[in-house]
Amino acid sequence: MQLNKLAFALLAGVTLAHPGEEHHHDRAVELSKREFKQAARRGLSACSEKLNKRDGMLDRAVMRRAATVVKYRKQLAARDTDTGETGPYWVKGEYIRNNLREDQPGVPIVIEAQFVDVETCQPIQGLYWDVWNCNSTGVYSGLIATGNGNTDDLTNYNATFLRGVAKSNCDGVVQFESVFPGHYSGRTTHHHMVAHLNATVLPNNTLTGGTVAHVGQVFWDQDLIYDVEATYPYNTNDIAITTNADDRVFSTESSDNSDPVFEYVYLGDDLSDGLFGWVTIAVNTSATYDPNYSFVWTESGGIAQSGGTVSVDGGSGDGGAPSGGNGTSPSGSLSGAVPSGTAAPSA
Prior knowledge:
Residues 1-17 form the signal peptide. The chain has 347 residues and is α+β, with helices and mostly antiparallel strands. The chain has four helices and 14 strands.
């Protein structure tokens, strides 16, 4: 393996934790966010030398990400060739697990985040990364809502696809196996996330207690989004694509030189083989937020229940429900070759 092709920068795609996802156009709130990001960035800049030297953390990041690519490429080489390719709402109480795909069609992805304490320059061990995104046709699991697929399909209350929680290791790293998100009206392609500290794991493998130190979203490169959206089943969604440039949440998240966009490589020759994406997220562990939620996962499935004060909806305007997303889950093959200029390291 040519490691220079896998020399992923430790702080590539750094995302700064911020004071929640309030989407009202409130100047005081926007100034508060900006000041927080500037302070966090100064802290992260001061951390850079320590992060590079600390116990070989940069070297471990390079080797870990290279090993991840090799691992999933070996799985591709060993798979049966006859096998087919396989909302914005936070639902409290999702299962602790690393594989979120279930039976969802679309481009398979492996995503990795490394969480760094911006105050101490240390990786955050024991943080629980809570993630969710819509499926390939713009539908979120675990809820029934106008614009979220077929509102007559009550089985979606019990669905858990593309949602889950996992714990960071000693290097502050968490990985998930998921599916590249589709889109719905008014939003670009994105993942939602909440970061929990000092939470307790219940016997049913869900979380309780602790505090939330981060609420945010992570995005993908626009050219890559276009390539994915040209494949099946993404191309069955006839709702117009909102680009990163036209997405107000993306604009807010990426202001002040913050870069909430996954770095990525192809795992094989084309999109059907999947993608590996990674990002480093700087978190102020002293911060505490109270994210709102619309549903709660219980032993009987999802139930409608609202709470919290900080919006994580991330919709256009004031962050309401998604409008659109056709709710289909077709099966079929994917296509889309690696574009020229995209890093595609050889195993």
